[in-house]
Design a protein that fits this description.
This protein is an alpha+beta fold. It is built from 5 helices and 9 strands; from the N terminus they run ββαββαααβββββα. It has a single domain, classed as Roll (Thiol Ester Dehydrase, Chain A). The longest helix has 15 residues.
């Protein structure tokens, strides 16, 4: 099984010395912190796998709204469907720890968005990593369609910011075919 190894990404600070770029900075869309409760833990004494996905799902509302998937956009008849998701569990989380989901766009096409996220602990270490490919949907036909110019332009600007936020320390498993 491929192991995710976190290696620091370097950048120059104001004195010209190299410093590490925290993972949180490489995933610039920050979700809501979650404290791990006893109800979230299993018999092994750590968070049950189902709650990692729930933290990612519950924490991405602002990220999706920033992408343009607002209530108004849904009311206009458009949405997105998930085509594929890959979730890696990397470091256990225990009761009382704080989980912070953070997100970024990896790639973009007129009908498709490849995005991902990490759950970080208080020390900034990756506990889990997720990546998904979603397709843009016309809800009247329930079929894929290209995004409108305004929506796609917003996503291109967001992608540009995310792409400039630093390299990842691991290879992605999913991709959008060129």
């Amino acid at each position: 099984m491929e192991k995710l190894v976190e290696r620091p990404v370097s950048e120059l600070n104001y004195e010209g010395r190299e410093k590490e770029m925290p993972m949180k900075e490489r995933y610039p869309s920050v979700g809501t912190e979650v404290e791990i409760t006893s109800e979230m833990c299993d018999l092994n004494g750590h968070m049950n796998v189902v709650f990692y996905y729930q933290i990612f799902e519950d924490g991405c509302s602002a990220f999706f709204e920033d992408m343009g998937f607002s209530p108004e956009y849904f009311d206009a008849g458009f949405s997105n469907f998930t085509l594929e998701t890959n979730l890696k569990y990397l470091k256990e989380m225990k009761q009382g720890e704080i989980a912070l989901p953070c997100y970024r766009i990896f790639d973009l096409r007129p009908k498709l968005i490849h995005y991902g996220g990490v759950i970080l602990n208080k020390a900034g270490e990756i506990s889990a990593a997720i990546e998904s490919v979603v397709v843009h949907i016309d809800m009247k036909t329930r079929r894929s369609c290209e995004m409108g110019e305004e929506m796609y332009g917003n996503l291109e600007r967001m992608f540009s910011v995310h792409e400039g936020s630093g390299d990842l320390d691991f290879e992605l498993r999913l991709s959008i075919r060129k």
